[in-house]
């Protein structure tokens, strides 16, 4: 393969690196360096182009995806230092936050959360600091796992790919169905990658409030996706009666009303990647 061909192959698949990095960053703490992941992904893309053999009949996109994901995993392994005790405490905090959010109908204050856990507010902040330094948290409620849990290493088959595309479609519809303020926070922070202080100024609230709204939105998104894709994963508070449950049922119905399977699959191309602009 000539140098010109290699260069063309790499350039045409540059968006793949950005897509895989964005996909992973959505499940990682905010402190994880996007630049480091992109650098690792770009190096893997170049290496994949050099070692690619078209005669094997494997599409380069699939071949490069596996190599890039492996490189991103290696990058995360170097950062994954969190002990089991940190992960266990993170799960306790998240569970308590979900229960209080369901009971109060709003995000609990740090004092309320600390009281529920039977710890001091200072200790709660210490746990939060530990969690933010870890890179083992997933989108579904800060549940712990290893770096390998964050990225699928096997090549997806046709059925897996359809399910993956449907999940992406549901996620977009779930974001569109969020209450306006929560939707603006999610779109601004995750999709537009805007700084939290900029979003706070636009909405006329504090950065702390934006952080609370972001956490509230992620819990709502997770439960909305579970309701349509994995109903058995809905926990007790999400099923409880009262106004909170009614609001959530309305939200779930609004997600379903956003479209159908065809419209959900249309959000990505047949390889499960965003459509080229």
Which features does this protein show?
single chain; 277 residues; mainly alpha; 69% helix; 0% strand
Description:
With 277 residues, the protein is mainly α. It has 15 helices and no strands. Helix 1 crosses helix 3. The longest helix is centred in the C-terminal third of the chain and has 23 residues. The radius of gyration is 20 Å and the shape is globular. The two termini are 28 Å apart. About 8% of the residues have low confidence.
Record field, number of beta strands:
0
Total helical segments: 15
Q: What value does the Rg take, in angstroms?
A: 20 Å
Q: Indicate the percent of residues in helices.
A: 55-70%
First-to-last CA distance: 28 Å
- What summary fits the major beta sheet? none
Shape designation: globular
Q: Which secondary-structure class do the elements indicate?
A: mainly alpha
Low-confidence stretches: 135-155
Mean pLDDT: 77
Secondary-structure element sequence?
Answer: HHHHHHHHHHHHHHH
- Please state roughly what percent of the residues sit in beta strands, choosing from under 5%, 5-15%, 15-25%, 25-35%, 35-45% or over 45%: under 5%
């Amino acid at each position: 393969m000539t140098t010109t061909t290699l260069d063309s192959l790499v350039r045409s698949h540059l968006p793949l690196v950005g897509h895989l990095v964005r996909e992973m960053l959505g499940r990682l703490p905010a402190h994880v360096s996007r630049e480091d992941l992109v650098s690792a992904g770009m190096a893997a893309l170049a290496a994949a182009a050099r070692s690619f053999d078209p005669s094997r009949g494997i599409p380069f996109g699939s071949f490069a995806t596996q190599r890039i994901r492996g490189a991103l995993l290696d990058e995360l392994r170097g950062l994954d230092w969190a002990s089991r005790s940190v992960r266990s405490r993170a799960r306790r905090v998240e569970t308590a936050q979900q229960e209080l959010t369901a009971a109060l109908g709003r995000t609990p204050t740090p004092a309320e959360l600390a009281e529920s856990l039977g710890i001091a507010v200072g200790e709660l902040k210490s746990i939060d600091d530990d969690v933010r330094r870890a890179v083992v948290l997933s989108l579904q409620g800060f549940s712990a796992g290893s770096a390998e849990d964050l990225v699928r290493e096997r090549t997806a088959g046709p059925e897996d790919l359809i399910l993956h595309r449907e999940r992406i479609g549901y996620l977009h519809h779930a974001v569109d169905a969020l209450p306006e303020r929560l939707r603006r926070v999610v779109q601004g922070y995750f999709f537009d990658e805007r700084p939290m202080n900029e979003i706070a100024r636009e909405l006329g609230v504090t950065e702390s409030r934006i952080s609370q709204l972001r956490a509230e939105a992620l819990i709502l998104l997770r439960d909305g996706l579970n309701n349509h894709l994995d109903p058995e994963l809905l926990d007790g508070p999400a099923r409880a009666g009262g106004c909170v449950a009614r609001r959530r049922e309305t939200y779930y119905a609004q997600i379903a009303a956003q479209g159908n399977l065809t419209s959900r699959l249309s959000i990505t191309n047949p390889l499960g990647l965003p459509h080229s602009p």
